[in-house]
Design brief:
Blueprint lengths: L3 E5 L7 H13 L3 E6 L12 H13 L5 H18 L5 H12 L6 H19 L2 E2 L17 H9 L6 E2 L4 E3 L5 E3 L5 H11 L4 E6 L20 E3 H6 L13 H5 L5 E5 L8 E4 L10 E14 L9 H11 L4 E3 L6 E7 H4 L3 H12 L3 E14 L9 H11 L6 E4 L5 E7 L3 H13 L3
Parallel strand pairs: 1-2, 1-7, 2-4, 3-4, 7-9, 8-10
Antiparallel strand pairs: 5-6, 9-10, 11-13, 11-14, 12-13, 14-16, 15-16
Helix pairs in contact: 2-3, 2-5, 3-5, 4-5, 6-7, 10-12, 13-14
The chain binds aspartic acid.
């Protein structure tokens, strides 16, 4: 029997008209049973999301400032939603309760979670659904990871007929305190609910019609990705988590529940389906690039005869708690690439440690590097992929600083100068788009 978990993002729930569209979507398919809403998003570009207003409220209250402004906006938004949707939900007593917590010396998580909580209550009433508070069934362990017991608790609570609404973004710690996932975390809640209920599909409704093969700000006519595997999507993580939270894959990957990215404003658009396996018609399914990397290039004669050279190098990064991205090697050279975000101000201490522990002949640090991942399981064992890719870059006059292909043969990474990012992505997209 088909059973669908549907997560709706903030932009799909920003006003009463959007929520009505969402209700129509839910009612259009009786298999849509478990509904995971985000907090209401922005109605206009210059408005703030409810979650941001709640963070602002918390920070003002902590500093002893009067939070009347964010509180007033939140009150107005939920009251008008209730009025326009014709539900009796009264936000007032909830806001008084939130006010009592606002200045407490605790993490902002409780406050931030209230956007989802209030919206969940409102939507449950509008749908005539059962409201299930994740504070009672999505539990975190002491180390902050999800307690697998949550799956059993959720499965118990989500039994029976009718619709269920489970607000996204939060759960509770072993001490019973509210804890949120990182921003955009309702996607993760949706995946957890899908797994707990053994859903046959996890629909993730947002404001775009799925993933595009390349960033549309660089390639405006980039095609929609129809189907992509969990692994390919991981390899495309440089796309950023603008469409889907990057931890949302893990709960559903093991049981193989597909994720369908859909647009609530264009529900008939086929969107993107994320699956365990697919027939690879195209060699490349996506191209994603990101700026802000630094490369440490180390040279030492007879390095390849020395035992433990690589281990010592990596231990320096480990000691300074810098997670590295790539490590291309030569015979007497080894390079290690890390993002500037990870490196922060640690570059100098890392250079000193390399000099001291590894005594290299040469050590060069190159910053201002962009990395581009060209991904597709159809590349595996296909002759000519790298030739086309490098040919495209040569045609665009781009110098490749570094190149790396994983042994899975489904991702070729190239490093180029920051300023060459856009033209490289465009050139790679064009060459593979033309290669059916
Ligand atoms: N409302 C939260 C945020 O803005 C979580 C979510 O929307 O998924 O990050």
């Amino acid at each position: 029997m088909e059973r669908i978990t549907c997560k709706f993002g903030g932009s799909s729930l920003a006003d009463a008209a959007c929520i009505r569209q969402v209700i129509d979507i839910i009612r259009a398919n009786p298999s849509r049973k478990y509904i995971v809403p985000s907090a209401p998003g922005k109605r206009t570009a210059d408005e703030q999301k409810i979650t941001d207003l709640l963070y602002a409220w918390h920070s003002m209250a902590r500093r002893g400032l009067d939070p009347a402004e964010p509180k007033g906006i939140i009150e107005e938004r939920f009251s008008s939603l209730a009025r326009e949707l014709g539900v009796s939900f009264n936000v007032q007593p909830c806001l008084e309760e939130i006010s009592r917590h606002a200045a407490a010396d605790e993490a902002p998580d409780y406050m931030a979670s209230r956007g989802e909580y209030l919206n969940g209550r409102l939507i449950a009433e509008a749908l005539g659904a059962t409201f299930v508070d994740p504070a009672e069934c999505i539990l975190f362990k002491k180390n902050g990871q999800l307690d697998p017991q949550s799956y059993t608790l959720l499965a118990e609570r989500l039994q029976g007929d009718g619709l269920f609404v489970i607000p996204g973004f939060y759960g509770a710690t072993p001490k019973g305190e509210i804890k949120t996932f990182s921003r955009g975390g309702s996607d993760v809640t949706g995946a957890i609910v899908a797994r707990a209920t053994a859903s046959t599909l996890y629909e993730n409704w947002t404001d775009v019609s799925g993933f595009r093969m390349a960033d549309p700000r660089i390639v405006p006519d980039a095609k929609r990705i129809e189907e992509i595997t969990y692994r390919e999507l991981r390899e495309l993580s440089y796309m950023g988590a603008t469409v889907l939270h990057d931890e949302a894959i893990f709960p559903v990957r093991e049981p193989g529940i597909p994720i369908h990215i859909l647009n609530s404003k264009k529900p008939d658009n086929p969107g993107t389906l994320i699956v365990a396996n697919r027939d690879s018609k195209r060699p490349v399914c996506g191209i994603a690039g990101r700026r802000g990397f630094t490369m440490f290039n180390i040279e030492k004669t007879l390095m390849n005869k020395e035992h433990g050279f690589g281990r010592k190098l990596l231990s320096i990064f480990e000691e300074h708690r810098v997670s590295w991205e790539h490590m291309p090697t030569g015979i007497d050279t080894i390079s290690i690439i890390a993002s500037d975000e990870e490196l922060k101000e640690k570059e100098t201490v890392i250079v000193e440690a390399i000099e001291r522990l590894l005594e290299p002949d040469e050590l060069h640090v190159t910053s201002g590097l962009a990395i581009i991942a060209t991904v597709g399981k159809g590349m595996n064992r296909l002759v000519g992929v790298a030739a086309r890719l490098t040919g495209a870059l040569a045609g665009a006059g781009v110098n490749i600083r570094v190149i790396n292909q994983g042994s899975s043969e489904m991702n070729i990474l190239i490093g180029v100068e920051d300023q060459d990012l856009e033209k490289s992505v465009e050139a790679i997209y064009r060459v593979f788009d033309a290669w059916e």
